[in-house]
Amino acid sequence: MARIYGFHPLREALRHRPQEIRQVMLAAPRQHPRRQEIEALCRRGGVPVGPLPDSLRQELEEVVHNGFVAQVESVDPAAGSQSGVLPAGGDPQLVVLLEDVQDPRNLGAILRVCEGAGVGSVKIRDRGSAPLSAAAMKTSAGAAQWVHTERVTNSAQEIDRLRDDGYWIWGAAAEGVPAWEVDLVGPLMLCFGGEEKGLRRRTRTVCDGLISVPMLGRVESLNVATASAAILYEAVRQRQAAAKKSS
Fold it and tell me: Cα angle vertex 40, ends 34, 42, to 5°?
């Protein structure tokens, strides 16, 4: 049994998969609009709802939950399993691979970016990556409920599989060419590495090329979540421009 904390993650869980929620516990004021919305979703989904027990309040003193807590079956897809659904407007030809992203808050932030950018699927290298924990779910502000995710065991094999399906594979690395100098239209996989070392050497070698966000200041690199946002929205810009041109 695991937990979800915070209004946005809980709301999306109740909207998307209420059958996985065993109990909702609330400490927000009774007349608060957000509490009323959660209670309405619980009624619609047949989810038990009650007050947050004092014993649990003490246990959660260090957790930012804003009065919204739920007990759920699981918040982490097992290796090789899939979770989430294709987001509204999601592009099945836009895929993200995450490798060794160890901070759950970074993972949650990236999933939020992917949902906003309409990514069709996020593949997470299982070994060395953060689980889709309560912290990741909360940082994603509920977006993790809507992004199709899949745990994979081997990055290079996954890259080869998508390349065989006609995808171009670009890896994010500081030494790469600027993302806006690369054609990011068509079947595309973007690969992002971990906080400390970036993409693994083997993964870099099997990518079609490396792209980057040029740093013009004194800081050497961006946080992986920030870099993924910059590169993904450059891809979105190019793809929307191409769609308008062809229409």
Answer: 105
Residues in CB range of 113: below 8 A, 6 or more apart: 225, 228, 229, 232
Q: Following DSSP, what letter does each residue of the chain receive, concatenated?
A: -EEEESHHHHHHHHHH-GGGEEEEEE-S-TT-HHHHHHHHHHHHHT--EEEPPHHHHHHTTTS--TTEEEEES-SSPPTT-EES-PPTT-EEEEEEEE-S---HHHHHHHHHHHHHTTEEEEEEESTTS----HHHHHHTTTGGGTS-EEEES-HHHHHHHHHHTT-EEEEEEEEEEEGGGS---SSEEEEE-BTTTBS-HHHHHHSSEEEE----SS-----HHHHHHHHHHHHHHHHHHHHHHH-
* pLDDT of 66: 78
pTM exceeds 0.70, yes or no: no
Contacts of 243 (CB under 8 A, 6+ apart): none
Q: 82 pLDDT exceeds 50?
A: no
